[in-house]
Amino acid sequence: MSEARRRASPYIVAALIVxxxxxxxxxxxxxxxRLLINAMLALSAFxxxxxxxxxxxxxxxxxxxxxxxxxxxxxxxxxxxLSIPAAALVCGLVALVIGLPVLRLKDVYLAICTLxxxxxxxxxxxxxxxxxxxxxxxxxxxxxxxxAMKKTKTWTLALALAFLCYLFWAASRSRAGxxxxxxRENSEAAETxxxxxxxxxxxxxxxxxxxxxxxxAFYAHSVGSLDNGDFKFNRAVDILGYAVLGGSGAWFGPTxxxxxxxxxxxxxxxxxxSAIGFLKNFAQLPNILNGLALMLVIIFAPGGIxxxxxxAPVRGAFLxxxxxxxxAAGITDKVGVADKAxxxxxxxxxxxxxxxxxxxxxxxxxxxxxxxxxxxVSFDLEEGKIYGLIGPNGAGKTTLINLVSGLMPPSSGxxxxxxxxxxxxxxxxxxxxGIARSYQNIQLFGEMSALENVIVGRHTHMRSGLAxxxxxxxxxxxxxxxxxxxxxxxxxxxxxxxxxxxxxxKLSYGDQRRVEIxxxxxxxxxxxxxxxxxxxxNEIETAALGDFILELQGHGVTILVVEHHMDLxxxxxxxxxxxxxxxxxxxxxxxxxxxxxxxxxAYLGRA
Amino acid sequence: MDLSFFADPVFLVQNLVDGLxxxxxxxxxxxxxxxxxxxxxxxxxxxxxTFMWCAFAGWFVMAAGGLxxxxxxxAAMLAGAAIALVLELLAFRPLRREGAxxxxxxxxxxxxxxxMVSVAEAAFGVQTRRFPDKVLDPKPFFxxxxxxxxxxxxxILILAASIVLMVxxxxxxxxxxxxxxxxxxxxxxxxxxxxxxxxxxxxxVTFLVAGALAGAAGILVALLTNxxxxxxxxxxxxxxxxxxxxxxxxxIEGAVVGGFLLGLVETLTIAYLPGGSDIKDAIAFLxxxxxxxxxxxxxxxxxxxxxx
Amino acid sequence: xxxxxxxxxxxxxLLEVRNLEVRYGGIxxxxxxxxxxxxxxxxxxxxxxxxxKSSTLLAISGLVRAAGGSxxxxxxxxxxxxxxxxxxxxxxxxxxxxxxxxxxxVAENLELGGWTRHQKVALHQKVALHQKVALHQKVALHQKVALHQKxxxxxxxxxxxxxxxxxxxxxxxRSRQLAGSLSGGEQQMLAIGRAxxxxxxxxxxxxxxxxxAPxxxxxIFETIAEIRRAGTTILLVEQNARQALRIxxxxxxxxxxxxxxxxKSDELLCDPSVVEAFLGKA
Lengths: 607, 308, 282
What we know:
Chain A is an alpha/beta fold.
């Protein structure tokens, strides 16, 4: 398929879906309401699925919203324009309460718990017949009379949906949207960039609940009657189908999915039913199609329809890439900074806490199960120096970095940073306080561009929240532009300017490593932890990296490098710490360490 | 609340009997569920649809075809194995080949389940199928005279069959060569490969066994409730999920114990709590919520669950 | 593929690797690697981290598909075979990090080591028996009984089990314990013992000394030497270069995915450039 055709195909698909829905609604105006509500529920699913939370709770929240609004409007006499938002707020409250424990569960458990939540809601509705009319159909009992319920016009529903779409669209271009995408790609790396993953997940869950509640409330008032079976397990599966088919990568994905799956069975019945007689009465057709859609999409096109847009110009429009700056001198030419001996005077120290050590490890130990990965490791780092951390495989080097960056707490011991204890604190707080890291096996945000990856690094230094994005405040736009510029600058300095717009996972290995370093630098850290930055690099690249690290030192960054490339370590480090079997066995300037008998033994084995 | 309830021993034992037979059913269903999870780390949400189809298969063989109960049971188990095999080949293996994540497999099974149930609805309609009396005499036994504890033949069969199945599965997993291979694949796929074990072959066997268990569960439930409809999988699926998590994912003994426990708790709740029969559906999940809050790995968990 | 005949080459080793290339995504982990392992010998592969040692072993045992080159085992090209077939051919790997089956007992782990042998005995004889029956040939009762006994007996396995227990008495003590509860050194012994149960012609060991205390390291290497004495060929990947070269006949030094140096192990032990390869220029 030609490039032009491939780029156009998602738009064609979208246009077809819109056409199918238009047909549907012209033929049967009641279906328009149903379609709009499904679209809203799809947005609710997007909110959580986008952050990789497999929550199936939307149906349950819709049920709560529907009944809450019905009760408020009919029993308490609230006008509909108040009861509907109020119902949504009720859902929000419930979400806050159950979100805290439930969101900590992983994947499968989360899905099951949210399914269970739906079940509990369903049962509760039956249990409170005085309030809800029980399970015989709320409309028919003393519950909710049709005239009292049927209050909303289609245009209000459409307006609400359009408004929500705007909010999602604006959010996707904001700092928060980018943070969510980062969490989606790699939540651990996102946390070490200073993003509070737990808070964002709770926010996503809350949003999902609010929207689902809103959809449910609209449903109650546009349909005019409620039955307990309206929000059964099947509904949750339908919604999942919208999200999977549409793809949870972009905000419009699930909505397109809803449009498709709502229209398809009716279309098939109308168009083909006459040809295949029995199809006209085929009540199970929607379900079969939904099931087929789920299976086929997840096996053959897991990104859904939204993934088709990935290569379309739309995506690029999110982030216009400024022209690459010329790479700064000092990267491509091999500067004559041969080794530490020749370097000029040390750069002026940044004003740091006087007298308090920069980073200090005191008796740090960490065990996994019965295995002791680190045992009683103690050393101090001084500001402004470059430290090497070396040792044979399994010596505990990466564990140490994980402890300092906050991905896990030590089993015992203390880690002091700028005079305060940081062991056990959450990684995003540590990141905010000035420690950045790179990873041994690359942890980039694969489907984001190199430039976007680096901009994520600016997260903690930016202030704009969702409100600013929704109001399109000039301060937000300015902040985004500044971040983009700084990110571009960093990439250029690492000779990556020409690939800034490319998808990170498609870059060469060496480029990916450098993007990760650029991303860490975007945080403007005081302490940079590099875990095997030269892995997979050839000699030239390694040398260039060494020069770059020295240059960083010149800008006042303190660096700790874990490496196996001994040439690099010997060339750039002021001091080296050697670990073996989780213990520190040597410490000191490179020359001394290289001759240390214990070190030789650790690497080469006993003589 | 009428406290004399508690004093009545016959009522209590009756409820124990009912609870245990109900729990046995949950256990047999959950065993197949947890077996697949243990080996593959995925939740096969089409297990209940398999269960339902096997009930129909058994019904056709026995009620329409007139064959005796043992053959019906065998037919159901064979059908279950066959369906499970098809599921593995169509819904799961393609994803494994692509290296997709576990959630994708779960979604695929949801899709398959949807298709299976809808096709059953279309094919069989919504009217209930029942077993004729000649399949299993519905007259119950009374222990301790006519006012005593009532136990039906179906319940006896269920208790007996489930014990046989549980013990059988246990022996299979622990003593036979294939059983060890299954445990090896469940423990560490890469290591199993290095031992020369054909991992895909072992997975196929796992599905066959799990499917057969679903089939057995299908027939047994059908015999007890005498109510075969395409939607019969829904309620037991949710309870099966709860049991599997309670007992720990992948833990077969846990599934058995969890099944009995849930059955007892449900029955006793209906008996002794006013309004209990309304909330019995949600009990499973209430318990589940509470347990997961405290122990994310389930009661006898394998430690596979992680915090997000 | 049948045996290769290439006149002019010296006698082919049990394992012949030619121009092996291993990639992970964009990185070239191993490039243009060629070497051979003579039957009955121990060859040590040493080198710094990231040099490509483990990747080489993974490609040989089939867990990773080689991007290029050929791997000839006993004359057969195994580069494209599935891992379980490679094990059946007699090439068994003890992977880095041991990969034992934690929820199973020590005894069960060891028994599973003999998985491939058992089947080999059963399958072709079963087939032969069925063929005979199908052709209505008379199959004497005693033949049937003998075959049944062979299929169900673990004579060979029991003997090998006792050999492994003799080699590792610690395992015998803990035979009923769960493998996951063993210490690192014991797990390593278990992993090696399990590999031996398959009666391998060629044993691949990936960093057996990793994570072990120095005293255990010496014991492990002694055991490896003993295994070779019993007739198994060994390809040993190690970080602990000195001890590995001590027990090996030949050594290969890898650096950045290529073969840096090759030769007799005692010569390599004294070679200063090898030290440089690890610690850089002093």
